[in-house]
């Protein structure tokens, strides 16, 4: 895909097919994270964990689900067959790790889109995950690392949000001031 097309087709996918994502595609997505700008080029402060184990994904969904007031329950992975967890050393006083992770995740999301996959940035439920050391232990994180966020990856379900037209004008959502 052309870069502009990738940007326009990228969206948060919250409904996935159960079909497995190939290890090659997941590696390509991880490789995109390796190209992200990391503060001071200190890559040792960031770690990725790729999870495709069905039982572990089900356990994450079960233990980290978010009940809503209307009785519905949101499963954090939305049925995705793969998840990439980002963890960091620290965080430090200036919280630069959050920026590092944000850059790595955006690269991975754009690469997933380029590969025709859906993805969603997962952050809101990680506080529940961090309170479950027995579950986190199964991730085999290096000592001293803290989970910051994750992405879910998979093939978009038929009822997932439709792609934005590539030739549509860019809708201004973020306020912009020009100081000329």
How would you describe the overall organization of this protein?
- By secondary structure, the chain is an alpha+beta fold.
- The chain has one domain (3-154): NADH Oxidase, CATH 3.40.109.10.
- Helix content is 32%, strand content 18%.
- The protein contains six helices and six strands, in the order ααβαβββαβααβ.
- It has helices at 3-9, 23-34, 54-64, 96-114, 126-130, 133-136; strands spanning 46-51, 66-67, 73-74, 82-89, 118-122, 145-154.
- The strands form two sheets. A four-stranded antiparallel sheet has the order 1-4-6-5. A two-stranded antiparallel sheet has the order 2-3.
- A hairpin with a 5-residue loop joins strand 2 (66-67) and strand 3 (73-74).
- The mean pLDDT is 91.
Approximate strand percentage: 15-25%
The CATH topology turns out to be: NADH Oxidase
- Low-confidence stretches at least 5 residues in length (pLDDT < 50)? none
Distance between the termini: 34 Å
Major β-sheet profile: 4 strands, antiparallel
Strand order of the largest sheet: 1-4-6-5
Helix and strand sequence: HHEHEEEHEHHE
Structural class: alpha+beta
Number of strands: 6
Query: Residue share in helices?
Result: 25-40%
Envelope shape: globular
Number of domains: 1
Just name the CATH architecture: 3-Layer(aba) Sandwich
CATH class: Alpha Beta
Mean pLDDT: 91
Radius of gyration over all CA atoms, rounded:
17 Å
CATH superfamily grouping: NADH Oxidase
SSE order and pairing:
Blueprint: H1 3-9, H2 23-34, E1 46-51, H3 54-64, E2 66-67, E3 73-74, E4 82-89, H4 96-114, E5 118-122, H5 126-130, H6 133-136, E6 145-154
Antiparallel strand pairs: 1-4, 2-3, 4-6, 5-6
Helix pairs in contact: 1-4, 2-4
């Amino acid at each position: 895909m052309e870069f502009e097309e990738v940007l326009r087709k990228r969206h948060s996918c919250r409904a996935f097919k159960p079909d497995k994502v190939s290890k090659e595609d997941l590696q390509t997505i991880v490789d995109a994270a390796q190209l992200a700008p990391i503060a001071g080029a200190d890559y040792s402060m960031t770690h990725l964990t790729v999870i495709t184990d069905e039982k572990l994904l089900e356990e994450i969904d079960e233990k980290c689900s978010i009940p809503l007031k209307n009785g519905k329950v949101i499963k954090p992975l939305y049925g995705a067959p793969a998840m990439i967890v980002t963890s960091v050393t620290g965080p430090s006083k200036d919280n630069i790790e959050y920026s590092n992770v944000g850059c790595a995740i955006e690269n991975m999301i754009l690469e997933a889109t380029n590969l025709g996959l859906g993805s969603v940035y997962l952050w809101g439920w990680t506080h529940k995950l961090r309170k479950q050391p027995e579950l986190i232990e199964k991730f085999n994180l290096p000592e001293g690392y803290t989970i910051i966020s994750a992405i879910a990856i998979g093939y978009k379900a038929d009822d997932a949000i439709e792609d934005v037209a590539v030739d549509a004008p860019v809708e201004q959502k973020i306020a912009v001031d020009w100081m000329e």
